[in-house]
Automatic annotation (TrEMBL):
It catalyses: D-xylose + NADP(+) = D-xylono-1,5-lactone + NADPH + H(+). Keywords: Oxidoreductase. GO terms for molecular function: D-xylose 1-dehydrogenase (NADP+) activity; nucleotide binding. Coiled coil: none annotated. PANTHER family: OXIDOREDUCTASES (PTHR22604), TRANS-1,2-DIHYDROBENZENE-1,2-DIOL DEHYDROGENASE (PTHR22604:SF105). It comes from Pseudallescheria apiosperma (Scedosporium apiospermum). This is D-xylose 1-dehydrogenase (NADP(+), D-xylono-1,5-lactone-forming). Its EC number is 1.1.1.179. Residues 9-130 form the Gfo/Idh/MocA-like oxidoreductase N-terminal domain. SUPFAM superfamilies: Glyceraldehyde-3-phosphate dehydrogenase-like, C-terminal domain (SSF55347), NAD(P)-binding Rossmann-fold domains (SSF51735). Belongs to the Gfo/Idh/MocA family. Residues 142-236 form the GFO/IDH/MocA-like oxidoreductase domain.
């Protein structure tokens, strides 16, 4: 019964595109509902932007709208803060929310690098509770202050969309997560445009015969078939409008007719992570078993290594000894 499901009151920080998808998804009516989600508060850089966000993306709701993020953190009626700001601000936003005693769900990429992620998790551990994380236009056509072009804002095609390629590679090649996962060797190249990685190619080399070839690019838009898993007995092709939003997969076993499997998934799928947060908060778990803190750090370490080899370093990292990401 719906009344027996856990209930979470959300505070949404930032009113950009990713926050609009998340907010609309968690209040969506769906058959597989695992929690009751209430948008309690919305924080934006101005009251007008916040009110427009509510009217446009989540009409029919009545959250408290604030003209700052700080007011969301301080709202006693907010259980969990969802952070949808640009990458460069994730660490500060997480730390600010944690300092106010809030649980946190931060959008990918969790932070700019593994060093920042460890700082956030250390603060969460000290506080006693917190929750861990989750097609670009041509960069050259964007204004210099765009979050997708300005390195100071964490502009990175790898962190923005390449993380999906890495996720599919890890999901299909790894047998564990976090501390139980394998540690592949990374070989990477990047195409830099004004210091921003506009395209990245990564080769993951595992012991034995397994390898992953991962790519991302802001220069072209990929097709419906975005993931190919090849093995000695055949292959599986995953299809969908985006790598973050799969809609079907086709199994091709050698010598047999291909079989396609479709699955119903309303919206963008953000409610899955929201449901997981609700269940963990209700059970007083500090982190999720499917995506533990150690896995978030591992993924960021792999991204750090790809950027170290490719040269995509953020200004915030230039003063770090060795001038390499994640050091």
């Amino acid at each position: 019964m719906t009344s027996e499901l856990p209930t979470v009151r959300w505070g949404i920080v930032a009113t950009g595109l990713i926050s609009s998808w998340f907010a609309a998804d968690i209040i969506r009516d769906r058959a597989n509902k695992q929690a009751n989600h209430i948008i309690q508060a919305v924080g934006s850089s101005s009251l007008d932007k916040g009110k427009t966000f509510v009217e446009k993306h989540i009409p029919g709701t009545s959250p408290t709208v604030y003209g700052s993020y700080e007011e969301v953190y301080a709202d006693p009626n907010v259980d969990v803060v969802y952070i949808g700001t640009p990458h460069a601000f994730h660490k500060k936003n997480c730390l600010d929310a944690i300092a106010h005693g809030k649980n946190v769900l931060c959008e990918k990429a969790f932070t700019l690098n593994a060093v920042e992620a460890r700082e956030v998790f250390a603060a969460a551990k000290e506080k006693g509770f917190c929750y861990g994380s989750h097609v670009d236009p041509n960069i050259a056509s964007l204004p210099a202050d765009s979050r997708l072009r300005n390195p100071s804002l964490g502009a990175s095609t790898l962190l923005d969309i390449g993380i999906y390629s890495l996720t599919w590679g890890l999901v299909t090649l790894d047998n564990g997560v976090g501390e139980t996962a394998e540690k592949p060797k990374v070989s990477a190249q990047q195409h830099l445009l004004d210091g921003v990685d506009a395209a990245t190619s990564i080769l993951l080399l595992y012991p034995g015969r397994k390898q992953g070839i991962l790519t991302c690019s802001s220069f072209i838009r990929g097709g419906q078939e975005f993931c190919r898993i090849e093995g000695s007995k055949g292959m599986i092709i995953v299809q969908g409008g985006a790598a973050s939003c799969p809609e079907s997969f086709t199994v091709n076993i050698n010598g047999q007719e291909p079989r396609k499997y479709n699955f119903d998934k309303p919206g963008f799928g953000f409610y899955f992570e929201a449901d997981a947060v609700a269940a963990d908060v209700a059970a007083k778990r500090e982190e999720n078993s499917t995506m533990p803190w150690a896995e978030t750090i591992r993924v960021l370490e792999l991204l750090d290594e790809a950027r170290r080899q490719g040269g995509g370093i953020f200004p915030q990292e230039e003063n770090i000894e060795g001038k390499g990401p994640g050091i």
